[in-house]
């Protein structure tokens, strides 16, 4: 059961309709669990997925999935959740980044090849991929973020007692110069 689907790949992370766009579900299946186990730890990820399959879903799982407004130091913070109506999810940005980095070249019997297209110029997508990673990180969270920033990390920190098996894996920055 995937939380997101192909409708999340819009705007900066849109994938043109083609044979390759049909492959996106394969990438969702491969990378959604990876990013969520990095965010939650395997034990909490397993509890989360199991909790969503219960006949009556515990509110803490709905808050994690769908978002919640809460208060920090007298100020409201709106965590948009892992999925939402705006179709903006750290999961989709993470998947898109992996999709594009894996499809930059094609492996053949003679090695890696770069596709050549007629009437167009191929460009290096490093800047776009850097933007995509930065957006994913802004939703995922960093330890240097303000407590008022609506990230998954801040949400989980705020409600840590609801998620006692939580284990967070920090993600680093990626920049245009790949350093």
The helix/strand class is mainly alpha
Which spans have pLDDT < 50 for at least 5 consecutive residues?
none
Share of helix, binned? 25-40%
Number of helices: 6
Give the overall silhouette.
Answer: globular
- How far do the termini sit from each other? 36 Å
Provide a quick synopsis of the model.
The protein has helices at about 25-40, 40-50, 60-65, 90-100, 125-140, 150-160, and strands spanning about 70, 75-80, 105-110, 110-115. With about 180 residues, it is mainly α. The protein has one domain.
Would you kindly provide a written description of the structure presented here, covering whatever features stand out?
This protein has helices at about 25-40, 40-50, 60-65, 90-100, 125-140, 150-160, and strands at about 70, 75-80, 105-110, 110-115. The chain has a two-stranded antiparallel ribbon. It has a two-stranded antiparallel sheet with strand order 3-4. Helix 1 crosses helix 2 (about 40-50), helix 1 (about 25-40) crosses helix 4 (about 90-100) and helix 4 (about 90-100) packs antiparallel against helix 5 (about 125-140). Strand 1 and strand 2 form a beta hairpin. It is built from 6 helices and 4 strands, in the order αααββαββαα. The protein is about 40% helix and about 10% strand.
